[in-house]
Sequence to fold (926 residues):
Amino acid sequence: MSYYFTILSPTDTPLFNIAFGTSKGGGDGIARFRFPETAQYMNQFIIHSSLDILEEAQWTNGGMYLKHIDTYPPAAAYITAFLTPSGARFLLLHQPPHLPSSTSISSGLGSSSLLGTAGSTTRASSSSIAANPTSPQTEEAVRQFMNEVYESYVKTAMSPFYKQGMEIKSPVFRTRVTAAGKKWL
Amino acid sequence: MTSPGDAAPVKPPPSFSPGVARVASTSPSRYPGEHETTQSLDAELAESQSVSSPTPLSGTIADLPIRPGSSHSRSGRSSTPQLARSSIGSPFDGRSDGSEDIRSSIIRSFSPTIAVHASEDTDDLVRNKGFKGGFWELIRPFGETVSGKVVIRDSIGSSRAWEDYGVRLADFKGIGRAPASRDSGPLAQMEEVLTKQLDSSNGMLGASVRTKDVLGFPATTPLCKSFLQQLLCSAPTAPHETFGHPVANVIAISSRNAAPLETLRQLYADGTTGDKQLPDWVNQEYLRYYVLVHDEERDDITESIKLYDQMKRHFGLHCHLLRLRSSQCVVTDDDSMQLPQCEWLSPLEHLSGAEALVDLGTDGTPYLFGSDATAIRAFIRELVVQSVIPFMENKVAVWNDQVASRRRGISGRFMSMSRRWAGFGSSSRSSIGGSSGGNSGNYDTTQHSYSPDSPEAVLRKMADYAFMLRDWKLAASTYDMIRSDYGNDKAWKYHAGAHEMCAVSMLLNPLATSAKIKLESVDQMFETACYSYLTRCSDATHALRCLSLAVELLKSRGGSATESAAKWAMRVMDFGLVGSVGQILYTERVAACYASKTAVGAAKWGGRRRKAGMWSTLAADQWLKAGQPTLASACLEEAERLYADVLQANGAFPMAEMQSFVDNLRHAVKVEYLEARGFDARDEPTSEDPLGTEETSEKLDMRHHRRSLVGPPVQLDAGGLDTTQGPLDPKSPPNDDFEQA
Fold:
């Protein structure tokens, strides 16, 4: 699993970005997205496009944690969202590792798996996150992660040197997010 | 027959006046001559009646059965009223967002197939006129639009008039046979056609490539439409669906024939015996229609009329006397017109057609006389309105009565259950269709087909007939009834086909509103169909057709259905069913699907502008990589238009990497665009502006849609620290007309 985490201001300006990989199950914590190195803008495109769904989902869901809201099927990217009362949005893009066996995008007619997204059973998942990004375990782990980040975010936002809408540059916050990622994802 | 719309008589009395009016409307220059012809014909008719035949001929020879009120309404190919119902107000009135056009295309693609079987002498006659392919080639383009309205009665007896009805005329010898020279499948051929179209139109596509309609939805590109049309007619004639099976067979002889009745008998027999006969999974119960082609220039009309009378005595009502001139028409002739273009050409024909064009160096379409065109149109109309449609209506009614109602009834349900747990009830089952026992029933596992008279095949044929008659309600219920049977028999292609068509007819039924039909069940059916086609049958052509139908029809439904439309379009790309150009086309389709989902309510939520914008940008990127800067620039412009609502006033993206990607893309598109047009962009001093703002606005100068949303991109680092924006409500619609709405 690779993760891309963004905090967006109410005006869609990004306040904080971080990309990291899973640390569970022997992961080294380095993000490996399916896009080539030159196409890392795709993460931002996907996050940005999921705001359409987010704007809809925030009125139909009472909680702050909106769970999995959107999918970008070509890259198997899943978006999970968390709303804060001040209007900032936490968006987490997660992407299961690329399995050359399961997806045959260019080669096969008819040989591809119609169930599509799941199916990465090769990882012996001793972690709390199963390989399926929409499973309840994943939802729960992401919720824990979001809550922990939210706590740090509130502390950072309460700093007298921080004005709302500013980019978060605090290294402490970054380390805390990284730690939360290590802990839960 | 209770509604006021049925007031129009279904069979109007034969009269000459509308026919003459139509002649005048199609070819004004020939009006006096034509008028004379008709009159002289009238005189001849009177003679011939007095001489030989008691049959009133005026009703059949020169009768143009135009229904009252329709002669004024024909204006070329009009497909707008395709949902207009004579008795019930159409729920889609006033909706014109370009998807109606696609919808109409889809409906017309499933039109009845009529085989054309002409004798040698007829083909010779037509070849003299310059049509190498013979009689079939001459009349084929005229079948695609039947002039005037066609009134069809559905199963509950209400009539509907269709203006865009058409039939597909197929060569009798070609039905059920795969073309010999097929080295690549239809999908590869389609890709080849696309590439050719791109190459040939490179540069010409220009600003006209994307016509935006009034509502601002992205209209379909011509490329996309042509792709869809090819796809819809590329599926070869197969046992599991009867759209390609002939509904009628037109048997044509000419007045030159020495032994006309013998020839007719021979041609008739070709249908059932001999090496030309149709495959045995084709139902032989089709209509035979006899045509006598009279040579106006060489032969005597009285002889022909005598022969025609004889034909009528032998074969009954399904006859026509077609009067053609036998000499070749050239451009300079008085009354010449070009043969209309065929709209529905399979990819193979597209490829061979393109080669022919290159060979000749000119437009190779032959010309014909206006009077011939009029005669052929009248013939097609009479064939369809007086013979084919009533025949199909009748067949549907009979099968519905004899086969479907039995299956629908309580005993039929019981029997279908008993067949599932086979072992009992086989004797009662055989009473339905004479089937033998065994779990697989009537399904022939070696041929992968049902015999044409088994109830399964008949029901499928009935549903297809109902579909072609545009009675989607009956079609959907019939497909729904039989789809599980095919699954039980493990007839996977039939299974997939029934699921596909069931979903399609549910979506096409204009009276079932989106609230009524459950989109989940439609989705489920497409899923099943696609799985059966791909995994169980490895039939990529049909799978692609099924998914494309799903995309277009769900998109035209609007509302939440557009989401699943986009999903299916992504599925097409994921399966790799299309080639590289096809991938780009489908990327565009995804963008179009999302763009057609509009925001509702005051808070403007529910739109998918960002998603549409993203897909458009990606399409632009791919077009650029494919070396099509013109198309790329069109897509990019589309993306800007879509992003206009969601970005801030200066049009800058909030995220830095997106912004730089879009800027680079714009620059590259502009450079390539100018290079393709022969300029060297690097010579221009203005284009060296590091921010690229000047270039963008210059590029947009050549299009009508001038609104440049790019503006000067803000300093990239300032994007993150934009402190001018106060804390707003999280929903914060960019243009804040909350109070007004």
Remarks:
- The longest helix of chain B spans residues 370-408.
- Chain B touches chain A through 51 residues (CB under 8 Å).
- Residues 119 and 228 of chain B are 34 Å apart (CA to CA).
